[in-house]
Design a protein that fits this description.
Number of helices: 5
Structural class: mainly alpha
Distance between the termini: 60 Å
Largest sheet: none
Number of strands: 0
Radius of gyration: 31 Å
Order of helices and strands: HHHHH
C-alpha cells in the first residue's frame, strides 16, 4: 500500500505579509529606476542575452500571447523593486513591440493577445436566449389544460404530520 504524501509546512503563515517591517520588501522601497528610459535600458540589457531570447521565443511558440509575457515581465520587475507599477504600465507596450520584433526576426509564430477568441461554441448571449426560450416553451406546455377525453386522476394528498408539518 503506497504511503500518503507528507504535508508540506514550508508555506507562509496566513497574514505573515502583515508582520514585515514597512519598507522591508523590494516593492515598498523607492524603485531603482524612476523613468521609462531607465527602465527600458534595464530591459534591453536582459534582451541582449541569447539564452533569454531563445527562452522567450519558446514561450511565444507554445501559444502564450505576447501581452501575457510582457505583463508578467513588468510585474516581476515591480516585485523586485526595479521600477514602479506606473512605469511598468507605460513600458508594457514597448516590451510588446520589442517581443513582436524579435519573433518576426526569428520566424517565431506568436499571438499578440488582442485577437478575438475563435471557438465553435455559441456566445453566452445566444445560449442565454435559447435557454429562456426553452423554459418558456416548457412552461407553456405545462399550463395547457388536459383534453376532455382524458381522465385526470387526482389522488388526495396524504395529510402531513410531524414537527415541520403546516397547520391548516
Amino acid at each position: 500500500m503506497p504511503e500518503a504524501p507528507q504535508p508540506s509546512f514550508s508555506r507562509p503563515i496566513p497574514g505573515q505579509h502583515l508582520t514585515s517591517e514597512l519598507g522591508g520588501r523590494p516593492w515598498q522601497s523607492p524603485p531603482q529606476y524612476a523613468t521609462i528610459e531607465e527602465a527600458m535600458e534595464w530591459y534591453l540589457e536582459r534582451f541582449d542575452s541569447q539564452e533569454v531570447v531563445e527562452e522567450l521565443m519558446a514561450v511565444l511558440e507554445s501559444g502564450i500571447p505576447i501581452s501575457t509575457v510582457a505583463n508578467s515581465m513588468q510585474l516581476g520587475a515591480v516585485l523586485q523593486g526595479v521600477h514602479s507599477i506606473d512605469i511598468g504600465v507605460l513600458v508594457m507596450p514597448i516590451l510588446m513591440e520589442m517581443m513582436k520584433y524579435l519573433a518576426e526576426n526569428t520566424d517565431t509564430n506568436y499571438k499578440m493577445g488582442d485577437e478575438p477568441e475563435q471557438t465553435d461554441r455559441p456566445s453566452d448571449a445566444v445560449m442565454s436566449s435559447a435557454l429562456n426560450e426553452l423554459k418558456n416553451q416548457q412552461e407553456g406546455s405545462m399550463e395547457e389544460e388536459p383534453m376532455e377525453d382524458e381522465e385526470v386522476d387526482e389522488e388526495p394528498m396524504p395529510e402531513q404530520t410531524g414537527l415541520m408539518a403546516r397547520r391548516a
